[in-house]
UniProtKB/TrEMBL annotation:
Official protein name in the record: Malic enzyme
A GO biological-process term: malate metabolic process
Organism: Heracleum sosnowskyi
Catalytic residues identified in the record: Y143 (proton donor), K214 (proton acceptor)
Molecular-function GO term, any one: malate dehydrogenase (decarboxylating) (NADP+) activity
Taxonomic placement: Eukaryota, Viridiplantae, Streptophyta, Embryophyta, Tracheophyta
Length: 595
């Protein structure tokens, strides 16, 4: 009760001063303001003074500590809440039940997203409790596909800033901006420049919804403390003319900076991050355009603790599904032939990790295993005759073959056993393509990974119907189960949320200083090992999200184990039981008792 006593004493002393002002009313009514706000004209500056003790209205407006109607009688007395809340005292479970009822009454998905963001801003623990306990229902709300629409309309629905906005106006002062963030013990930063948001293109500053959503999942699914997470948007302009003409756009109204100006901005940012937060701050690059994504990862992976979820996270989760599917097909990865539609950061990232995994399993050269993997871009199949015109990240997958200019002909020529879509273009796995895959394979493996749902290469219903129920299907965004000829098919979701929360937790809890490719392979194998026989019977190659916290703990443990083996973990000595240690490290959102 020492803090409460000090607060009461401060209130009594302040009361003595207030009594001296009795009868002196300001122009706005009440007691005259001693800081001059009532005397100030509209164009004069005033100081926003605030009491710093967490009690009364201040406690109710602090999302970290607010419990709403869950404050006990004792807490209401101790923290001056009496009369500020209705008399009912609810449990956190009752609050959760009420909120889920309200959310289900919303017919528009974007309204559910806005309601969840409002909850996060007023009651942090209840937000994460709701998300953890109803993850399969709410994951599509706080992340893909609804977050895509939220980013498109971010200027219109913007209410309260979340995270840091670093624009070209702050160039030369980025360290100063980072120091403005009130929390110093940051462990994970998710940063975007908004140029390639999901499959929706350049959304500029409005891409902030992606870092905010990703970090919500770091906490809910991976157990990283909310206060240790920092979402950042780097605003270098936008080439989206519709946004530039939008009167409610919240970002810089200029075309994107490129070349040296852009590189200098990112270099200053990365240097400032390390200077302010230290060597072991995990920086996750999110939704950068292809040309910048590969360059940033290559430039900083040896000097900083960096991770690109679009390249590495997507690759890891897809590889996990492929490893899990081996039990269904009764073969090895090396027996497969892979065909990708899309040769950007996701497609080439997945392809490279598959080749690396095959190399490690067969002890064969990486270059040889790349030959099992074919990619189609907007101009057709990647072949050696196109080598000079290809971007550097595509060149390893340009093989000897005659030119092929469309996907259907590529399927006929390559005869793949696995078809993977990372094109960002919807409806590209046509009926003819799926039927051709089905004629070549008893159980064709079809992964339509592009987000959001509208950009998926095909739907679950199309995949099952056109393959006559024989396809093994997974997608990037969720699809409902499909009944075909009396059998219920449950589509899997190759969602990065399976990987990056547990992956990040493993890095943090082991004090890993660099991201090594072997850590990604370890995460893939850990996820694949969580698929049960019951899951296989339903046609799933991924475990259900209902057990995601357990899955994340196992991924974290495998990643940490590999980091210790590689000698890149700095937390010593190594904990004996890393799964148990991961579970103990996880943030839990149940309410705390206050004294």
């Amino acid at each position: 009760m020492g803090l409460v006593f000090q607060y009461k004493r401060a209130v009594m002393e302040a009361g003595d001063e207030i009594l001296k002002l009795e009868g002196k009313c300001g122009v706005s009514g009440g007691v005259q303001d001693m800081y001059g706000e009532d005397k100030a004209t509209e164009d004069q500056l005033v100081t926003p003074w605030a009491v710093s003790v967490a009690s009364g209205q201040i406690l109710l407006r602090d999302p970290r500590y607010n419990k709403g109607t869950c404050f006990t009688e004792k807490e209401r007395d101790a923290f001056f809440l009496r009369g500020l809340l209705p008399p009912v005292i609810m449990s956190q479970e009752d609050q959760e039940k009420k909120l889920m009822t309200n959310l289900r009454n919303y017919e528009v998905p974007l309204h559910r997203y806005m309601a969840m963001m409002d909850l996060q801003e007023r009651n942090e623990r209840l937000f994460y409790k709701l998300l953890i306990d109803n993850v399969e229902e709410l994951l599509p709300v706080v992340y893909t596909p609804v977050v895509g629409e939220a980013c498109q309309k971010y200027g219109s629905i913007f209410r309260r800033p979340q995270g840091l906005y670093i624009s070209l106006k702050e160039k030369g002062r980025i360290l100063e901006v980072l120091k403005n963030w009130p929390v110093k013990a940051i462990q994970v930063i998710v940063v975007t420049d908004g140029e390639r948001i999901l499959g929706l293109g350049d959304l500029g500053c409005q891409g902030m919804g992606i870092p905010v959503g990703k970090l919500s999942l770091y906490t809910a699914l991976g157990g990283v403390r909310p206060s240790a997470c920092l979402p950042i948007t780097i605003d270098v302009g936008t080439n989206n003319q519709k946004l530039l003409d939008d009167e409610f756009y919240i970002g810089l109204r200029q075309k994107r900076a490129t070349g040296e100006e852009y590189a200098e901005m990112l270099e200053e940012f990365m240097s400032a991050v390390k200077q302010n937060y230290g060597e072991k701050i995990l920086v996750q690059f999110e939704d950068f355009a292809n040309h910048n994504a590969f360059e940033l990862l290559a430039r900083y992976r040896t000097t900083h603790l960096v991770f690109n979820d679009d390249i590495q996270g997507t690759a890891s989760v897809v590889l996990a599904g492929l490893i899990a599917s081996l039990k269904v097909h009764g073969c090895t990865l090396a027996d497969h032939t892979f065909l990708f539609l899309g040769a950007g950061e996701a497609g080439t990232g997945i392809a490279e990790l598959i080749a690396l995994e095959i190399s490690k399993r067969t002890n064969s050269p990486l270059e040889e295993n790349r030959k099992k993997i074919w990619l189609v871009d907007s101009k057709g199949l990647l072949v050696s005759s196109r080598l000079e015109s290809l971007q550097h990240f595509k060149k390893p997958f340009a093989h000897e073959h005659e030119p092929v200019d469309n996907l259907l002909d590529a399927v006929k020529a390559v005869k793949p056993t696995v078809l993977i879509g990372t094109s960002g273009v919807g409806k590209t796995f046509t009926k003819e393509v799926v039927e051709e895959m089905s004629s070549l394979n008893e159980k064709p493996l079809i992964l339509a990974l592009s987000n959001p749902t509208s950009q998926a290469e095909c739907t679950a219903e199309e995949a099952y119907t056109w393959s006559k129920g024989r396809a093994i299907f997974a997608s990037g965004s969720p699809f409902k189960p499909v009944e075909y000829e009396g059998k219920l098919h449950v589509p899997g979701q190759a969602n990065n949320a399976y990987i990056f929360p547990g992956f990040g937790l493993g890095i943090i809890m082991s004090g890993t200083v660099r991201v090594h490719d072997d850590l990604l392979l370890a995460a893939s194998e850990a996820l694949a090992s969580q698929v049960t026989e019951e899951n296989y019977e339903k046609g799933l190659i991924y475990p259900p999200f209902t057990s995601i916290r357990k899955i994340s703990a196992n991924i974290a443990a495998k990643v940490a184990t590999k980091a210790y083996e590689l000698g890149i973990a700095s937390l010593l000595p190594q904990p004996r039981d890393l799964v148990h240690y991961a579970e103990r490290c996880m943030y839990t959102p149940t309410y705390r008792n206050y004294r």
